[in-house]
Fold these 3 entries.
Entry 1:
Amino acid sequence: MGAFMRKGVIAVLALLLMVSFAWAGGGTFSWQQAKGSSITVAMNLGAESDFIGNALPKFEALTGIKVDYQPFPELELHEKTLVAFTAHAGLYDIVMQDFMFTPQYAKAGFTLPLDDFINDPSLTDKAWYKPEDFLKGLWSAMQYDGKTMAIPLTGETTLLQYREDLFKAKGLRVPTTFDELWAAAKALNNPPQIYGIGLRGQRGQGMNIFTWTQFFRGFGGKFFKDFPKDMTPTVNTPEAVKATQFYADILKNFGPPGVANWTNMDMYAAQQTGKIAMTMDANAFGPIIDDPAKSKTAGKWRYAVVPGGPGGPAPAIYTHCLSMAADSKNKTAAWLFISWVTGPEMTKARGFATGVPTRESTWTDAEYMAKLTSVGAGTYTKATAESMKIADGQYRPIFPNWREMGDILGIAVQSVIAGSATAQDAMDRAQKDITAMLVNNGYLQ
């Protein structure tokens, strides 16, 4: 993302929208109560962090708090913050994290419960903040052991994203099954000008496993025998092997060179420059690749619910969230930042730029919906709404050691895409390694 995500359009939009913000502050609440303090914020590179970064002068003027704002590529962000948390180094006050890490960080005591901040009238004007306004599925994903451990920043699912002009030229229908997806990718593949499909290949629970899981579940795969009652892994079943082989084969046959190392950032760039004809990735891509200021292919993309197999369509559900480091020395200032960024006004403003708001009030806002209706000629909002309804909250199983399990799977899937292992051998090895990890952590005898 990096350079092409930091265009003047986002900056201008941020400033225009921020001018009209009406900030609450009734009762004992004051935005100036931590004036003179400073905080360090670790963020994931992308449209959300770009928008917030451009709006920081407003926050600093409102609160008198100085912000050391540090965006990183996603994998680097997770590595840096985990190292800092483990060392109790106090490097960061606030961390933008993958919601799948919420149980891990909470169990380890790396992050603080936020309920006391939310419920303290001197720290939060609840009549303005409206915590009940967050989408229920996303808010529930922030809970651990009955406590709110983070606040949702984005609300995402995955969509089939396809070039309508290329589909029409080939007389293709929108795929609803994996067989149809294969046929479309084959028909659209015309290297080196354009490749039939692009999907994440880079190893990692939040990289290739985020998109591979659509195929894993779509082919009927399950991560465990009976999660969370029976944590015996089931990642080398015939369904799992078939899904992994299909994922690797469609990329090897119709994907770009080097796709085994592709991340979400590579996907954005490939869509914007016209390198790929299809993907099955985050709906957050939509407003960006449909923006002519950022994308050479703007106006050509359409959106649909992802295709499926015997297990049906399996779109992802996802949120980046903001958590507070337990060793933060500036907790009041940190909470003011979190509440400001996730408050109703900023959520709506960010939604106009990124299309992934987390509040009911934004998704039902007439102005917002009118703006999004133009994305994908109306297919974006329809496909997103349908996908959010059918997405499983346990799309990837949420438990404290998911990160380790997901990364083991990521290595296995990448090895099959790269051609260094067969799907059966890779998933057998993953099954063995995951079982050992679960035994070591007390999930299995």
Note: The chain has 21 helices and 13 strands.
Entry 2:
Amino acid sequence: MLKQSQQLRLLQKLSPQQIQLMKLIQLPISELEQRIKEEIENNPALESMDDPDIDNNEQDNVINDFDEIDVFEDYNTNNQDNEIVENNYDDINEYFNDDDDDIPDYKLYVNNSSDDDTSNFQYYSNYSLIDSLIEQLDYKNLNEKERIIGEYIIGNIDDNGYLQRSVDAIVNDLLYIRAIQTDQKEVEKVLNIIQQFDPPGIAARNLQECLLLQLKAIPQKTPEVLLAIEILENYYEEFTKKHYEHIMKKANISEEQLKSAISEILKLNPKPANSQAQVGSQAISIIPDFIITINDGELELTLNNYNIPYLRTSKKYEQLYDSLSKQSNDDPKRKETLQFVKQKIDGAKWFINALEQRQNTLYMTMKAIMETQKDFFLTGDDTKLKPMILKDIADKIKMDISTVSRVANSKYVATPYGTFLLKHFFSDSLETQSGEEVSNKKIKAILKELIENEDKFNPLTDDELAKILEEKGYKIARRTIAKYREQLKLPVARLRKEL
């Protein structure tokens, strides 16, 4: 039985324009320039003031030289697009991993950062390591079958230079994918050839093999190199866990001999493909969205409008619209042309207005962040950062948390102390014994300083670090210390110990 009824519901929906505005807010300045270019291409009623083709005196020109038919042809070709378009290691710790639950994965971690890395990202163009290895394969006297095996092995080497498939898996792959019947012995033979290629250590199946390949590739085998090979071959597990006393006892060597061997190991590269990838590398600087300067002890904030053109609506389209709107709309073709022109002009005005709203939103958000973290921006000291979450800024500027999140997501600010991602300034709070709330970034900064200045022959354990922090007024559990230490990419005390 059919039944009719009325219901009253309150719904909140975002219009396509609102969605587009949110997307514009989220774009960093490096992508905004491309988005503006796309909009100018899609909308003939939108013009850039920087366009050399635009005559500065065109407002004096009437539509004598402007053909309405051209606009109508634009309508025919663009009608389907009328909807809004949506568009050097300091420590041996970096090498090894431990099965202990408290130890994070440092197996392939390399500390290549520096103090300047806050202001720049290093982007390495991917020099084709595969092409280099294939070229070296061509110089080997291999038969057709061995060459196919070699190419398949090279194709399974990852960005760090490690072979990601086992020999058994490669044998099966070649059989089912290439219909080539081979065995482990034949694959191992070709793999051993590839492992002699440059860079040394390439195509290793694990870190131990990678380091051994590099040591064995050294032409002059000094006693230190030979001892390093012996340690990695026979005492690798003890070495990764820094059980140096066990190694000296089992290998019957002195502490000085062990130090010399470790020194040779520390010269090796745990990611052999990195050196190859850096050939022809280019450093690309981040373009900041905001610039903060200090003038007479006061902070000054400016938006970086680098390469962002000034926009306006086309005078020709506005003149044409005025002309068409005064004429009779009996002609269907003329009426459609009028609708098309109006739609493009409205779209251009909306886009210009949306960009203005974006700039205002970004400025208000960054100003609130700057005022909240004023002590940091004046000094550059991470310990001066205050606890701050998205809601704090949203309440301050009376906007939604999602809007603040979009601003902070991928934007950068240039300061006298480097360029930072806005997310850097957001952190949770911890309460001190005196009841004061401090940022967890301050705790991490103190923790990092303690570890940097510790006695490397007797490094501080997590329990000892917790006690020192408690003496400073920060009562923090050992588990939290371990979590912060891992976030700082610092290993446990045993792996920080030096001879």
Note: The longest strand covers residues 290-295.
Entry 3:
Amino acid sequence: MRFVMRFAFVLALAATTTLGCKKTEPAAPAPGAAPAAGTYRFAFVTNNSSDFWNIAEKGVRKAEKDLGIKAQVFRPLKTEVSEQQRFIEDILVQGFDGMAICAINPDAMTPLLDRVAGKMPVVVHDSDAPKSQRKAFVGTNNVEAGRLAGQAAIAALKQAGITKGKVGMFVGRIDMQNSIDRKQGIDETLGKQPGIEILPIFLDGADRTKAKKNVEDALARYPDLVMVIGLWSYNGPAMVDAVRNSTRAKKPMVVAFDEEEETLKAVEDGTIFATIVQKPFEFGYQSMKALKDVKDGKTIPTTIDTGISTIKKDNLATFWAELREMKK
């Protein structure tokens, strides 16, 4: 009898415990109401750690606030494909919802980019990978940017009364699409000027020390060097340092790209004739917006042109004020 009573007690206790632990199912959404959406998490990958990307990251952070997304910025220390590949492998396993990348070597990286595109939308910014399955390119028309640089170089030489001589071009890599396109634009303009010879391009692998040494070597080797043009952002300060420290009586004219602080100071003091500026803030912002639009099922254009401008001493003050406000 005692055993029967004890057994009945255990059964009653078990029933009570089971009822107390029963899960409550969430209420179904009302007819026609959209289910609550999660927050998208996107990756933004640069091609190096240049100060240029500080502005792009500001655009990414603004997009986080405006669009209700989360983003992580990956910045390789050097412009090496292997660094980007490591980042991409991490992105693939960390559950991101989309990736925006400045592809260092578009042809070599296309198979990997396509593998990512099979799992999440991919947007390419700054330097395109047109053969990949990316959804869009966000950035500058770099052929046109090269033409603007070439036109600025022609104007600088004309102002100085120079009709012949050699031109040196300096860049980190020439296998990136932005480098290829900018060189094309310069060749189409400055390269067609009678008496002007464009030297084989000087490569520095995004190493600022080597970038400066390349300019110093060109200054020493070519007494008739009349123009130096830097295609990437850090090339501006590197050219300025080398030209200022040169003992040559007649120093070459300088045309640069982008808006590093030292570059703009050199435009102000006349060392740089002009710099061709992009809109890196928009690289960050528009890349994030494009990824969100794709995830939301919207159609986006395959090219999102963020625009370019030529900055000289006469329009520097306005541009610099806008840039400083943007950086806040």
Note: The two ends are 82 Å apart (CA to CA).
